[in-house]
Write a structure and sequence with these properties.
about 325 residues, 13 helices, 8-stranded parallel sheet, alpha/beta, globular
């Protein structure tokens, strides 16, 4: 019954004329709508990960956005508006291989400006970060028992899809709370307790190669931004370590792409005043957090909020989040 009531509420709020009024109210001060994605997967692939959006869902979202918004680059969004239409920016975090394999085709076919925030450590080593390794390891069919001494015990499966992702998410949150230098070892412990991933059509989460990154970065509609070197939670490490990670990512990306790297995204959205000062010192023009709201003129350029979008977000629910509901 609750699900039925919720669905009826979504239909009511997203139907004209009520949705038009909500949209007009939300956009009256000309905010910029910045969406935060991570990666894409073909519809036939099975992966229990909110991070991996189905390509058909992405296409539907782009079509819905273009009815109201100008989809612009991040640089255009930071400049004075040139039309009366509200502006939307599409950003992708981390630098997963599908940016070259899947997103680039859409960028070309749809003339779609996008910003990719790339964490450079995984590009340099070719190895996924701990969180992608954990997601990959927990994609086997059936049920898996995971125990981490002192942290807890989790049952993963047997369901796939969203229920599986909720179980995986609980494991990821437990690891995020641990010291930065222990997470890789904890991921190794999890992997040691799993069978090889065998979900139908599953393709692992892996980083772009350097050649793939350079191909993507060369496209005129793609803006590359930094996302730290090691995807550290920057408010939980020392300011010196944060500076080293941010500066290294900026330097590597500029060397690899031959372009100025002026924009940054805080990993996991974690910011702190000391980190903001580091970004100022390093010359970044903008930086994005999460926040799940629109970016207004009053928001500092180094703390721009975004709305996160993932695999299990229905289009009607996303439309409500675009109007701050």
């Amino acid at each position: 019954m609750k699900a039925v009531i919720k669905q009826l509420g979504l239909r009511l709020l997203t139907a004209p004329p009520l949705y038009g009024w909500l949209q007009k109210r939300a956009l009256k001060d000309a905010p910029v709508t910045i969406l935060c994605y991570h990666t894409l997967r073909p519809d036939h692939e099975t992966i229990a990960s909110w991070l991996a959006l189905r390509q058909s869902d992405f296409a539907a979202q782009i079509a819905a956005l273009r009815k109201t918004y100008d989809i612009v680059s991040l640089d255009q969004a930071l400049a004075p508006a040139t039309s009366d239409k509200p502006r939307a920016v599409l950003t992708f975090d981390d630098g997963e291989w599908a940016m070259q394999a899947h997103l680039l085709k859409t960028v070309e076919a749809e003339a779609l400006p996008v910003t990719l925030y790339v964490a450079t450590g995984q590009i340099e080593t070719g190895q996924p970060y701990w969180f992608d390794r954990v997601i990959n390891a927990l994609q086997s069919q059936g049920e898996t028992q995971i125990t981490l001494d002192g942290l807890g015990h989790w049952t993963i499966g047997p369901a796939l899809g969203k229920p599986r992702w909720e179980q995986i998410g609980a494991v990821l949150e437990a690891l995020k709370a641990q010291p930065e230098d222990t997470r890789d070892a904890l991921a190794d412990q999890i992997i040691a307790q799993t069978e090889p991933a065998d979900a139908p059509g599953f393709t692992p989460m892996t980083p772009m190669t350097l050649a793939q990154l350079q191909e993507v970065a060369a496209h005129p509609l793609v803006t590359i931004g930094a996302h730290s070197h090691g995807h550290e939670l920057l408010d939980r490490i020392t300011p010196d370590a944060a500076r080293d990670s941010i500066a290294r990512s900026k330097e590597l990306l500029e060397t690899w792409t031959g372009k100025s790297i002026d924009h940054f995204a805080y990993p996991n959205g974690n910011s702190a005043p000391a980190v903001v000062e580091i970004l100022k010192d390093l010359g970044f023009r903008s930086a994005t957090i999460l926040g799940d709201r629109l970016a207004h003129a009053s928001d500092p350029a180094l703390l721009l909020p975004r709305i996160s979008v993932g695999r299990y977000d229905a289009l009607d629910r996303l439309r409500l989040r675009l109007v701050n509901i």
